[in-house]
Design goal:
With 63 residues, the protein is an all-alpha fold. The protein contains two helices and no strands.
């Protein structure tokens, strides 16, 4: 078993560019699932951002 602390794809700029150029959230989810299933974890740039919806503009603090 490898003892590296960074994901093997972490520094791969071509792989990161491919992931970031994918506009479809379904395609990104499929990519994440494939990498997760084959390596057991994700590079930091492929991890999901904070869960939840983004607040609507101009409604901060209003109800």
């Amino acid at each position: 078993m490898s003892t590296t602390t960074t994901h093997p794809l972490e520094a791969d700029t071509q792989e990161r560019a491919f992931f970031e150029s994918t506009a479809s959230s379904n395609a990104k989810a499929a990519y994440r699932r494939a990498v997760l299933r084959t390596t057991g974890w994700l590079p930091s740039w492929a991890e999901r951002k904070r869960a939840g919806r983004k607040p609507k503009a101009g409604t901060k603090g209003q109800q």
